[in-house]
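If you are new to this repository, start here. Below is one unmodified record pulled from the training split, so you can see the exact layout before writing a loader.
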Amino acid sequence: MAINCADLIISRSGAVTCAQIAVANKPAILLPLSIGNGEQAENAKYLSDIGVGDLILDEELNLKDLKGKIREKIVSKSSESTVNVDAKALNHLEAVAKLGKVIMNQVLDSN
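And here is the target side for that same chain:
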């Protein structure tokens, strides 16, 4: 499961995704869909309440705050996790590393 390789998860908050995040015990930033009957917001609230994820509603979402949350999660000692890599994932690690560098450059950019 790709979630096991993640240091931080940024995701919508469907039931299956939230279950995977909870089982993997990975830090997460959850962006629930605002459509439907609010079940994604409830899923995200639950993970937020138990300290696994941070909830950002669509109407509250902006780049500055998202970058701040990412920076906070990455810098925070409490959100450190081990990276589990299986043999099937090894051929993608270079691409993942490049993507991670692009994200980090954007997050840590002082502008």
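Two things worth knowing about this chain: The CA atoms of residues 11 and 30 lie 5 Å apart. The domain at 2-108 is CATH 3.40.50.2000 (Rossmann fold).
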